[in-house]
TrEMBL record:
<dbReference type="InterPro" id="IPR058240">
    <property type="entry name" value="rSAM_sf"/>
</dbReference>
<feature type="binding site">
    <location>
        <position position="186"/>
    </location>
    <ligand>
        <name>[2Fe-2S] cluster</name>
    </ligand>
</feature>
<keyword id="KW-0411">Iron-sulfur</keyword>
<dbReference type="InterPro" id="IPR006638">
    <property type="entry name" value="Elp3/MiaA/NifB-like_rSAM"/>
</dbReference>
<dbReference type="GO" id="GO:0051537">
    <property type="term" value="F:2 iron, 2 sulfur cluster binding"/>
</dbReference>
<dbReference type="GO" id="GO:0051539">
    <property type="term" value="F:4 iron, 4 sulfur cluster binding"/>
</dbReference>
<comment type="subunit">
    <text>Homodimer.</text>
</comment>
<dbReference type="Pfam" id="PF04055">
    <property type="entry name" value="Radical_SAM"/>
</dbReference>
<feature type="binding site">
    <location>
        <position position="51"/>
    </location>
    <ligand>
        <name>[4Fe-4S] cluster</name>
    </ligand>
</feature>
<feature type="domain" description="Radical SAM core">
    <location>
        <begin position="36"/>
        <end position="260"/>
    </location>
</feature>
<dbReference type="GO" id="GO:0009102">
    <property type="term" value="P:biotin biosynthetic process"/>
</dbReference>
<comment type="pathway">
    <text>Cofactor biosynthesis; biotin biosynthesis; biotin from 7,8-diaminononanoate: step 2/2.</text>
</comment>
<dbReference type="Pfam" id="PF06968">
    <property type="entry name" value="BATS"/>
</dbReference>
<comment type="similarity">
    <text>Belongs to the radical SAM superfamily. Biotin synthase family.</text>
</comment>
<dbReference type="GO" id="GO:0004076">
    <property type="term" value="F:biotin synthase activity"/>
</dbReference>
<keyword id="KW-0949">S-adenosyl-L-methionine</keyword>
<keyword id="KW-0808">Transferase</keyword>
Length: 343
């Protein structure tokens, strides 16, 4: 049986000197992943705004007056055009989000067609459509959906202050349904909601203690959207972001960790540290669902500076020598591989 994390253990990670935590995280990261490889996804909102839920951070809730352009469900052709472009630009996965409480059964043929067509282009697919019934989840899985994104966002106790139109248990139920269909689970959270460190601890424990840790963990930093109740929230300290990425890596060594919303407000050095200690996935392209993401050129330039490449090598493909070749026989670190090049 897998070992469970308890509150005191995780608190220790939050209280320890930062470099101790970062060293541990990077060591673990190098054990399971190629430290110079980043997974690249593109995100598209397929239905925007007028969401009946009241998530206090969200530009798309019908409860708040925000400046977003509301959009009905997109035509399949429009989605496929966007997916094709994402593939051409090097994305490995195409993620689609709809501002729904849940899909209707009558939407299923539409969703299934999109999944099949995007997969035919040679990309993985991910959707985030709200709560799912078992029947709907099975249909999506059968159509070939690779990942379903459904975030826990924060701790159970703090969740009630962020969303009142659904419960944490509803979220856990949907996650359970997704897991049982065999689809891969993408589930993470947001920092900057006004949560305490104890909420961050409980949230990470909740994720890591699911029957199986999510294969993909998005860590979002609040994007303060004008018109939402969180528009004036306190800024998140970037060292907190780096620490949380590191702790997520330590607790869930084999999951992909996506440095998700909020990258636009992070400088290159912050992002570099996040990548160094375990973040190995990003959204690529200048827009998330309704808010801005770094321009592609900026990401390419950062990847170049850091020597990062994506799995399919469309982005920043270059031949570099393995550092081990250079340091071989030099005994810089005795009996240890200095550089764990991707296995
Ligand atoms: N409507 C679906 C749902 O809630 O399951 C999926 C879309 S929702 C936009 C996906 C996630 O994006 C949220 O759970 C939250 O973690 C993140 N998110 C939404 N608005 C955000 C914001 N303003 N800043 C940072 N993250 C945000
Ligand atoms: C996730 O955790 N982050 C993405 C994805 N899952 C769907 C969404 C980020 C949204 C940021 C706010 C916006 O652009 O509206
Ligand atoms: Fe709706 Fe999702 Fe936004 Fe919540 S986070 S208001 S469910 S779109």
């Amino acid at each position: 049986m897998k070992k469970k994390w308890d509150f005191e253990q995780v608190k220790l990670l939050f209280d320890s000197p930062l470099f101790d935590v970062l060293f541990l995280a990077q060591t673990i990261h190098r054990k399971y992943f190629n430290p110079n490889e980043i997974q690249i996804s593109t995100l598209l909102s397929i239905k925007t705004g007028l969401c009946p839920e009241d998530c206090k951070y969200c530009s798309q809730s019908s409860r708040y007056k925000t400046n977003i352009k509301k959009e009905k469900l997109l035509e399949i052709e429009t989605i496929l055009k966007s997916a094709k472009r994402a593939k051409e630009l090097g994305s490995e996965r195409f993620c689609m989000g709809a501002a729904w409480k849940n899909p209707k059964d009558r939407d299923m043929p539409y969703l299934e067609k999109i999944i099949k067509e995007v997969k035919n282009m040679g990309m993985e697919t991910c959707m985030t459509l709200g709560t799912l019934s078992r029947y709907q989840a099975e249909r999506l899985a059968q159509a070939g959906l690779d990942f379903y994104n459904h975030n826990l966002d924060t701790s159970e106790s703090f969740y009630k202050e962020i969303v009142t139109t659904r419960s944490y248990q509803d979220r856990l139920n949907t996650l359970n349904i997704i897991r049982n269909t065999g689809m891969k689970v993408c589930s993470g959270g947001i920092i900057g909601l006004g949560e305490q460190t104890s909420d961050r601890i409980k949230f990470l424990i909740q994720l890591s203690n699911l029957s199986q840790a999510p294969e993909s963990i998005p860590i979002n930093t609040l994007v303060k959207v004008k018109g939402t109740p969180m528009e004036n929230n306190k800024d998140v300290d970037m060292f907190d972001v780096i620490r949380i990425i590191a702790i997520t890596r330590i607790m869930m060594p084999k999951s992909y960790i996506r440095l998700s919303a909020g990258r636009k407000n992070m400088n290159e050095q912050t992002q570099a540290m996040c990548f160094m200690v375990g973040a190995n996935s990003i959204f690529y392209g200048c827009k998330l669902l309704t808010t801005a993401n770094p321009e592609r050129e900026n990401d390419l330039s950062l990847f170049k500076k850091l020597g990062l490449h994506s799995k399919n090598h469309c982005i920043n493909a270059h031949n570099h020598r393995n550092i081990n070749d250079i340091f071989k026989n030099k005994n810089i670190i005795e009996n240890q591989q200095y550089y764990n090049a991707g296995k």
